[in-house]
Design a protein that fits this description.
By secondary structure, the protein is α/β, with parallel strands linked by helices. It contains 18 helices and 15 strands.
């Protein structure tokens, strides 16, 4: 199991125009004036990846959530990013790598609501007659691409796996004429064709093709498409976005259940003038997309912190971003997004709040119930780890004695998930390591703040006790950072 967390990212470039298409017709009996408008900018003209929107619209899921959705087509490739960042649209479909670059290099205010496609769909493609099946077969060949820096870096990374470099190929900027560049023989192969579109389209025209998926050759897994919104907009309209995502999830469920029906709705909403669709091509596109829009490990619209971190690190390594950043900086509130449930939580899950039988040592009940309230499962888990996965006193002054115990973490995790795991959603289980780290850091900050303010909240027995408490929590947090991969593997082990 992977750790999936919804993330927030930022992106603001130049404002550009956007042309209207599609519609936001309301459900029967609904007055347009009663609905909140939400403008959604597609990454391109309507195609298979957008079908869940039309399902949600047609079935009235948006209207049920009090929303009138207007679907907009982009005038420029950056429209989904720039318009949402500037508050000119509510939601955009955009790309993970470009969003990371915008965040790292421009610090622009867009947040990510969820991943629409869980892995890359860009490929290296060639006509079968060229016999290009591996990166080694590219050596000495011409490769058409759309002139992007990312295209150059991705091809270079693939060549590196066979000991070659970009000097061993000839890159030719063919713009967006990738298919025709191949079929006319202007290039031997291309980078940037989509496995769900160009491949079936070429085969529909009678061309046999071979292709390579980038993540098979050194490029990290990344989200091909995501939903983004403006930072200020999300802060001011969290409920609206929660309702939108809820309707989208219903639309996707219907898309999964009846792809043929979804295809019909897509064809009815296509832009025939600018981007006419071929039913057989889009049907095959559905076949490709549905298994990677939601997988066994990644529910629709979920995200994985490790995917973000791997891509941030890789983009820095290849020189596409100036500096790395912590994915925690860009995490969307999963509770506000409607992806994590509220539970009845204790919120002070220390061992000394359990009453044990004096003779048998068996646990009898949980005490100190004045802290019980609605909360997240990860909070209770995290607080118990903060307290129990170390061998030192909470106010240990000698930090050399303060160490996060992976042995105790595994023992507790095993017992916790074996006893209560069935009660939690897959995503809740995936947030548990974050609960441990965040609760430990939070408690450290609270101890430190109380110390600086004169020790008004936490009871102390000596002057620097809260300071010592804070230092132990920060040391434990640092240890968790070092053991992060191992913590995730333990969660996976017992799920």
């Amino acid at each position: 199991m992977k750790q999936k967390l919804a993330l927030l990212l930022t992106a603001l470039l130049l404002l550009t125009g956007c042309s209207s298409g599609g519609s936001g017709d309301t459900a029967d009996g609904q007055d347009d004036g009663e609905l909140e408008t939400i403008d959604v900018v597609l990454d391109w003209y309507p195609n298979a990846v957008h079908a869940f929107l039309y399902e949600a619209e047609e079935k009235g899921y948006f209207a049920e959530e009090g929303l009138q959705v207007n679907i907009l087509f982009p005038s420029n490739a950056s429209d989904p990013l720039t318009m949402t960042a500037a508050g000119r649209a509510d939601i955009g479909f955009y790309y993970q790598e470009d969003t990371i670059i915008a965040k790292a290099n421009e610090d622009v205010p867009v947040k990510v609501l969820g991943a629409v496609v869980q892995q890359p769909i860009s490929i290296v493609c060639a006509l079968a007659e060229k016999n290009i099946k591996t990166p080694e077969d590219l050596i000495g060949k011409t490769i058409g691409y759309s002139g992007t820096r990312f295209g150059e870096v991705a091809v270079g990374q693939m060549l590196e796996t066979v000991g070659a470099t970009l000097d061993d190929v000839e890159l030719i900027d063919v713009g967006f004429d990738l298919m025709s560049a191949m079929t006319t023989g202007n290039v031997d192969a291309t980078f940037g064709c989509f496995i769900n579109h160009e491949v079936p389209a070429l085969e529909e025209e009678g061309f046999a093709v071979d292709y390579m998926e980038v993540m098979d050759y050194g490029v990290p897994n990344y989200y091909a498409l995501m939903l983004v919104t403006g930072e200020d907009q999300l802060e001011a309209n969290r409920d609206k976005y929660t309702r939108f995502l809820r309707a989208c999830q219903k639309g996707f469920a219907d898309m999964q259940a009846d792809p043929e029906e979804a295809l019909g709705l897509l064809l009815a909403n296509q832009d025939e003038e600018n981007f006419p669709l071929t039913a057989s091509v889009e049907r095959r596109s559905f076949d490709v997309l549905l298994p990677i829009m939601e997988t066994a490990d990644a529910p629709f619209l979920s995200q994985d912190v490790s995917v973000w971190q791997e891509n941030i690190d890789w983009l820095q390594k290849v020189g596409m971003i100036d500096a790395a950043f912590d994915p925690a900086e860009v995490m969307v509130d999963l509770l506000a997004a409607g992806k994590l449930p509220l539970r009845v939580t204790h919120n002070d899950t220390k061992l000394n709040n359990i009453l044990f039988d004096k003779t048998t040592g068996e646990g009898l009940c949980v005490i100190d119930l004045d802290t019980v309230m609605p909360g997240l499962a990860a909070n209770d888990f995290g607080d118990s780890i903060r307290f129990g996965a170390n061998h030192c006193a909470e106010d240990e002054a000698d930090l050399s004695k303060v160490n996060f115990s992976m042995e105790l973490f595994e023992i507790y995790t095993k017992g916790f998930l074996q006893a209560a795991g069935e009660a939690f959603t897959p995503l809740e289980k995936q947030t548990l390591p974050w609960g441990a780290k965040l609760m430990t850091m939070e408690c450290g900050m609270r101890f430190l703040a109380d110390y600086l303010e004169g020790d008004h909240y936490f009871h102390i027995n000596y002057e620097t006790q809260n300071l010592n408490r804070a230092r132990t929590q920060f040391k434990l947090t640092a240890d968790m950072e070092k053991s992060w991969d191992a913590m995730q593997k333990i969660i996976e082990k017992y799920c």
